[in-house]
Amino acid sequence: MSKTALITGATSGFGAATARRFASAGWKVIVTGRRAERLQPLVDEFGSGTVHAAVFDIRDSAAMQAALAALPAGFRDIDLLVNNAGLAQGTAAAQHASLDDWRTMIDTNITALVTLTHALLPKLIERRGAIINISSTAAIYPYPGGNAYGGTKAFVSQFSLGLRSDLHGTGVTAIEPGMAETEFTLVRTHGNQAASDQLYKGADPMTAADIAEQIFWVATLPPHLNINRLELMPVSQSFAGFQVARQA
Ligand code: NDP
Ligand code: 8X3
Q1: What is the pLDDT of residues 182-204, one digit of tens each?
Q2: Residues of the chain with pLDDT under 50
Q3: How many whole angstroms separate alpha carbon 11 and alpha carbon 183?
Q4: What is the C-alpha separation between 26 and 217, in angstroms, rounded?
Q5: Is pTM beyond 0.85 here?
Q6: Which atom of ligand 1 is nearest to the CA of 104?
Q7: Which ligand 2 atom is the nearest neighbour of the CA of 136?
Q8: Among 18, 30, 34, 207, residue to substitute to test ligand 1 (most atoms within 8 Å of Cβ)
């Protein structure tokens, strides 16, 4: 019998590629996001018996609960939760950053993620299912302008390890990608396509399909195996040294 995955943030980037990867492999997939017009093509491509679209703002917990309550019969037995919906907003130093941007990141990347996880835990535990949380290299390696975004992803990684401690018998993985070309930078720069193009130009970044493949691999390992953390970057990306603020 086919398994069922709920993948948040499936209108774009990692989420859309992951939905396609799982649906192509015969899984049932619940796809979520705010842009209904981006989810419908997935339903059209794979059929309504394979893909169910749930349109809601993940920060709206009442809308989230309503979407879960409205799942069709064939999609209620969720085996895998992929907490992927998330965003960065802004690259300014903390002292110049927008508090609204910080709140949006915290509400989306942390509060919504724990709310959905909490709602699905009983079912996931009952089914000996799994959770894959999309964190970031920004969880581990700080960089100028990463401030609140890195903080939210550090939460995601540590929350994932904490879940491991509690959920004996239920798999939990934090995936920590570095630079991948999606709409991420367009969103981060509040719609600056030129800045997004500039970042990825000549960098041979990872693709959404690369990440989807890793998510699928983690989810389809033999059931006795758990990947706790999976950190990956494009070969073109590496580390820079510490900086020193010198006295005049
Ligand atoms: P995209 O911008 O392409 O996709 C983000 C997804 O999140 C969209 O489907 C979007 O849906 C959804 N989302 C954002 N806010 C909300 C909201 N309020 N309600 C519902 N859905 C929301 O970026 P990526 O695919 O790159 O990002 C996916 C995840 O990967 C994020 O958590 C990101 O932090 C992380 N990541 C990305 C990296 C990269 O370099 N690209 C590297 C490391 C981690 P919609 O707008 O339609 O609601
Ligand atoms: C996205 C990767 O380096 O832009 O999480 O923070 S980075």
Answers
A1: 999 999 999 999 999 999 999 99
A2: none
A3: 10
A4: 14
A5: yes
A6: 18
A7: 5
A8: 34
